[in-house]
TrEMBL record:
It comes from Geodermatophilus maliterrae. The keyword Signal applies. It comes from the Bacteria. This is YdcF family protein. PANTHER family: DUF218 DOMAIN-CONTAINING PROTEIN, INNER MEMBRANE PROTEIN, PROBABLE PERMEASE. Residues 1-22 form the signal peptide. Residues 36-182 form the DUF218 domain.
Amino acid sequence: MTRVFGAVVLAALLLVASTAAAIWYTARGDSRPSSDAIVVLGSAQYNGVPSSIFEARLEHALSLWEDGVAPVVVTVGGKAAGDAFTEAEAGRDYLVDAGMPADSLLAVPEGVDTLESMRAVGTAYAERGWSTAVLVTDPWHAMRAERMAEDAGMEAQSSPTRQGPAVQTRTTQFRYILRETAAYLLYRATGESVAGAPGIG
């Protein structure tokens, strides 16, 4: 019995360690294939003004669009009770103010977490006959976002932002990797998402 228990504990530790390593490895990547759209994962906004985390993602998406990665940028995310703007609307308006033409933008104002957002984007993709996406989010969030996008019917790769609070210190990075490891394993085990800190839900 002791050996069986030890084997189970060891297997669980190996699963956690391998998942954390995969998250770290995915975070270091930067895929920019020609795609149907660039999808920016939403984060907090304050009366229509993107938070610093969200702004970093939007600026990176703008750079990808300017480089010709995709003709359209999709902003996605709903709103909390009492909010006047959705994350998708705040992101779209930010990019318009930055000089992007409105016909190059698609706001999908749905989703309180990554899973709901990816399912909403998947529906928008199906309606337009699109299939390929480059996801823009924080580095540690990229692997789970890719998985959820693929489960929603998209062929997704990620180009994480390298700016913003989520990548400022090693302590912050370590904390995000731990949280993403738990969130990813929970999603794979249950098919459910977890609402939490920006980029974690």
